[in-house]
Amino acid sequence: MDYNKLAELLFPDVHETPEDMEKKYPPRNLPEGAKVTRFAPSPTGFVHFGGLFPATVGERLAHQSGGVFYLRIEDTDAKREVEGAADALIKTLAHYGVHFDEGAITGGDKGDYGPYRQSSRADIYHIYAKKLVLDGRAYPVFSTDEQLDAIKAADKKTELKNTDWEKEAEARHEAMLKRREFTIEQVEKELAAGHAFALFAIADGDPSKRIKVTDLIRGDLEIPECDEDVVLLKSDGIPTYHFAHAVDDHLMRTTHVIRGEEWLPSLATHLMLFRYLGFKAPKYMHIAQLMKLCEDGSKKKLSKRDMGANMDDYKRLGYAPECVIEYVMTLLNSNYEEWHAQNPDKAYTDFPFNIKKMSNSGCLFDMEKLGDVSRNVISKFTADEVYNGLLEWADEFDADFASRLKAAPDRAKAVISIGRGGKKPRKDYGTWLELRDYMALFYDETFRIIDALPDNFNKNDIIKTLDAFAASYDHTDDQNVWFGKIKDIASSLGYAADMKEYKQTPEKFAGSVADISSFIRVAVTGRLNSPDLYTVMNILGKDCVIRRINEFKETIA
Description:
Elements: H1 3-10, H2 18-24, E1 36-39, H3 49-64, E2 68-71, H4 85-95, E3 102-105, E4 108-110, H5 122-134, E5 138-141, H6 145-160, H7 165-180, H8 184-192, E6 198-201, E7 210-215, E8 219-224, E9 230-233, H9 241-251, E10 256-260, H10 267-277, E11 283-287, E12 291-293, E13 299-301, H11 311-317, H12 321-332, H13 336-342, E14 364-365, H14 367-379, H15 383-397, H16 399-407, H17 409-416, H18 432-439, H19 459-472, H20 479-492, E15 495-496, H21 499-504, E16 511-512, H22 513-525, H23 533-540, H24 542-556
Parallel strand pairs: 1-2, 2-3, 10-11, 12-14, 15-16
Antiparallel strand pairs: 3-4, 5-6, 6-9, 7-8, 12-13
Helix pairs in contact: 1-5, 1-8, 3-12, 9-10, 12-14, 15-16, 15-17, 15-18, 19-20, 19-22, 19-24, 22-24
């Protein structure tokens, strides 16, 4: 076979060489030990929570080592691409603190190793495709992509029927060998007729032999050699993931590839292509799939349909990005929580991220744990930080609430400040949505009686309590005087003013001062449990307090 002639027939317009590409994309000038990592999603839909994992790992490894973290959009599958998905992905990752040093950005590229969208790199792939033909490593197949897809579908259908595996393997091997049988004359004839070709790489592996590889998470592995020819270019000239991945990771000087374990079966193929192309393969890390605990106690893979899978859900529900990243870090490294407890004032970026601390069996995704983490993180925010985060969320998801926040920012911050600071700050909410509901009692537009007083309480006692409190309430009272008046009301109605005394002899009293406080609390806040009642009243103001008491009396009269 005259491979020089074959290469010119297939790629007559390709004049640049791999050597030209090496000059155009030279090794990066980085400190020793610096890592170059990437996040390389396909724009086929929303950002999955599982996608945040490799992105965060890549960002941490690169930036901890003084390296480079870049974004590459793998948009070679036009049929599956969702319009606007790439830009949405970029914005979503930025929202959660995943920042790239270079790569694809909205409207273009940033960096010297682009283009960073595979759809714009066809000329580069063809240079290396031509090289593989010249080396006798690749050959054309004049079949349409639809025909190739049909072959794959048939293979899959056969597999599902569980047919004789040995015969199946033999048939596929024979078909592969037949595809390799062609002449220069046949190629010329097909091209003259205007027929497009797909390009295959010739596999040289022996399935009975194993390749020894080291996965940075899973350790030493042995995988079968690749013995099936691999599609490099589809008939439209667009590369497959396998081929583009090898070319791009080399030219962009990627040192570490972080991806899901579903790519492990393709590892032998990728290593073969790196070898054919004369490239040094990057180091690989295959992250275990995220698991979810089912109601029956079993575990399953976190699917796209599960709550929490779509990163847009977190924004809609009002999870602060800092909370989400904090939770991701607890899943990625088993010692993160211990470290953070010892370093409460440090950012997650100060944490010495360690690959060896990553699980190879699948992390357990837990929305309740995320809620706990979020409440803890938000409790450490300043009132201004909470207000700004809440307002940003409300501007997008609740315009009416945003208007109320903007109309009285000092009032909103006063509410947010309740129980904030100190060694044991309150942890009433973990999302902006929960905070909105928490704050509802402070605005007449959203105030509602949510909790009912227990039926065993005497209605007359409730009314007498509210009348007495309204008559004695002075907005200028300090908290001791304020609570002293409530105690006096309790005593006048036969309720214990002293809780210790009540616990010792409850039969002597109609109830306790806590019950009297509950009457007032429900009338003013609509809830049996609320923030500090004295502080709530100070924020609401006397007129509002008295009005709510009178309106509540009407509901129980």
